[in-house]
Design goal:
Two copies of one chain form a homodimer.
Chain A lengths: L4 H16 L9 H8 L3 H13 L3 E4 L5 E4 L8 H9 L6 H5 L14 H22 L3 H18 L1
Chain A binds a DNA duplex (30 and 30 nucleotides) through α3.
Keywords (chains A, B): DNA-binding
GO cellular component, one term (chains A, B): cytosol
Protein name (chains A, B): AsnC family transcriptional regulator
DNA sequence: TAAATAATATAATTTTTCAGTAAAGTCAAA
DNA sequence: TTTGACTTTACTGAAAAATTATATTATTTA
């Protein structure tokens, strides 16, 4: 049970965007994010594709172009970001499809025991989404800011 | 973000154990569980190895042998079972190790942005464990029982 | 006590997913 | 018209997960 790097990288990139924006006026290029976050440009491209489709960022092309937040940082939450790049959070396939367990051997989930497990997993999924949806990008930005400050003060 | 089959199978096997026990007197063989749950015997062996080490089941060898619950079903919870076969629930490696992100390229998690993400993931992990630890095997057994009953009534 | 049963332990194999890379193309602004 | 940036698709290698295989040891029962 892990959050894949896709989700983590997307969060990181979005936090980077908030931190480096000047009132969301100057587009930020993937090249810059790539450098700061040490994530390959091509990989970022994949992620921002999805972030854009989910209306979380907007882009301007050409020289001096790049990405901007599509909404205010307090209107974007962690759940939006993660679901944009990873799809909906599903702890077991039968929850979404209702049935299938595997792709290769599309066996039905016909064990009643599974249904009890499904009840449990659905409950957990709810809790996860609840937490993700009550944490805004602004929150994440502030936390980051505070950590940076602390690190500075220590020196 | 998925619960692996290991965890799901272990839950299923344990529910099977509760459902088919006669006051926990007659050991249940993996062969029977394997048949009922359609999980290969060898795979079950791996799982029960860990369940035993975690003191959730006890075993007797030889003919007529098999597994029994090591404690009462209301003293065993879903979290015990899942953690027994999957290890602790960790949504990102840096949470456990404090630092490392990957094994192969042991790069440090030196981005402050990650720390904000860690705060979020730790919160979620707490919630997950909370839910898992408040759902007993007895609960799961009852839910299963109810579902079986409903299915019967429908006919 | 031999045969059958069932757990224990480890190793090997297969399958699937993930992470990252590459390439070729499109579009917009300076 | 050229640069810089976004778009899209395909591919590859590595790691993790799932499954299978092979012995071995311990009990019971006929």
């Amino acid at each position: 049970m892990k959050l894949s790097t896709r989700g983590r990288y997307a969060l990181r990139a979005m936090i980077d965007l908030v931190q480096n924006q000047y009132n969301n006026l100057m587009p930020i290029s993937l090249r810059d994010i790539s450098k700061r976050q040490e994530i390959s440009r091509q990989y970022l491209e994949q992620l921002f594709n999805k972030l854009k489709k989910a209306d979380l960022v907007k882009s301007t092309r050409g020289a001096g172009g790049g990405y901007l937040l599509a909404k205010e940082a307090n209107k974007i939450n962690a759940g939006d970001i993660i679901r944009a790049v990873e799809g909906p959070i599903v702890l077991a396939d039968c929850i979404l499809t209702g049935r299938k367990i595997k792709k290769s051997t599309p066996k039905k989930c016909n064990k009643v025991e599974d249904c009890a497990i499904r009840v449990l997993l659905e409950l957990i999924t709810q809790k996860i989404n609840q937490t993700l949806d009550t944490t805004s990008l602004q929150d994440l930005g502030r936390i980051t800011q505070n950590i940076k400050k602390e690190q500075k003060d220590e020196r």
